[in-house]
Amino acid sequence: MTRVVASEATRASEASPQAAEGGAQRAAGERSSSGPAAVQPRTWTVLELLRWTQGHFAERGIESARLDAECLLAFALDCDRLRLYVDYDKPVGESERARFRELVRQRSGERVPVSLLVGRREFWSLPLRVTRDVLTPRPETETLVAAVLARFPAADAEISVLDVGTGSGAVALAIASERPRARVTATDVSAAALAVALENAAALGLADRMRFLEGALLAPVAGERFDCIVSNPPYLARSDADSFAPELRHEPALALFGGEDGTEVLRALALAAPDALAPGGAIALEIDPPQASAVAGWLSAAGLVEIATLRDGARRPRVVTALRPPVG
What we know:
With 328 residues, the chain is an alpha/beta fold.
């Protein structure tokens, strides 16, 4: 991780980190006003704020320090990240710095994820609204979407797809956007999560081709069969919760933890899948890498075949797929 010393942001005593009252204030260019000798405030530019904030985040162990600084400053200035570099020498006004200062405080002090601070996240090139009611979509989950698209490569494929535990709708919406003739059903045990997913579907113009149903696992679609079941279920072990990144405290536990060992939901889905798959239908499950062999074993025990494990961009086992044997 590269640490950047923002010399431009510390040249004047009134702007130095040592003279300010806390990191978030320093990142927004606040000065000390503790006595009559306090100096006049200086002007902060876009680039100076970015450089200081990157160093501030890096000191606190935030790995994506530069990206986070850019996203938060762009949000505070109501512009895109490219505009930051077009206007890198533009002075930032006090009201904008105040807004930015609060964002920096929450990110560095409370470790609130950037996605929740700005209320959005891009997934599969789709802009999605996210809230504390849904899991923030991760890049590795795109492996799950890729697995489904590879199984049904025809762009005009008329397939029925079930997304179990849809959350923000990320996976279901990505599949629907790539397969315009697919019939997509998305379920979740959380009514609040379904409301976010439906909002995202409407914003993307995909709501008319999708169903959103509330309920656990396969209960909302009892008696139905699908060409594909896909799920990014809760798979973290509750017993390991104390070792996770502090950012996870701000995401719904319901979407994170799959029981004490993390496998409760995965096991249930694997064993129930044959009854909800059409002959020749496929299932794709996102997993924690160490769970790959166990999930493959459950799918095999359920009578599914052609079991495979796919790796994410970091070369870690991330998705296990299987097929229900065709009739005959």
